[in-house]
Amino acid sequence: MKRFHIHVHVDDLAASIAFYSKLFAAEPLRVEADYAKWMLDDPRVNFAISTRGTKTGVDHLGFQVDDAAELAELAARADAADMALLDQGETTCCYARSDKHWVLDPQGIPWEHFHTLVGAPVYGESRQTSSSAGATSCCAPSGKPVAIPIKPAGSACC
Description:
Mean pLDDT: 77
Number of domains: 1
Shape: globular
CATH architecture: Roll
Distance between the termini: 24 Å
Number of helices: 2
Order of helices and strands: EHEEEEHEEEEEE
CATH superfamily: 2,3-Dihydroxybiphenyl 1,2-Dioxygenase, domain 1
CATH topology: 2,3-Dihydroxybiphenyl 1,2-Dioxygenase, domain 1
Strand content: 35-45%
Helix content: 10-25%
Number of strands: 11
CATH class: Alpha Beta
Structural class: alpha+beta
Largest sheet: 9 strands, mixed
Strand order of the largest sheet: 2-3-4-1-5-8-7-6-9
């Protein structure tokens, strides 16, 4: 089963932890000096914040999967849609060891697809195995937007 993932860069970690803990009615599962993460079941979301970004706001979105088969399915979907795929393979990022890949939407927003293998004592280490987009850090690919069909002008919103 997939879990939606959102990573937001914040200026004040303590104030943001207090805010989101009240908003979610739950304390974070993991807190580090520069990072916090909630694993919520209602809604099923992995919500992370960190102070590592260059600007505040949404850093990336994604899907966390429960096993390698689900991760392979997401890679196959990207391939079928002719999306450029950055396969990082097994890497350490956000205090976890994961197998992951990335795609970029037409606006350049990174989407992370990952299967968490185990926790890690450090924020990250970058290791890319192939690249059509390039990685700027362990948790953020960079590059040009990928070829994803866009809704025609005048189509209904939302």
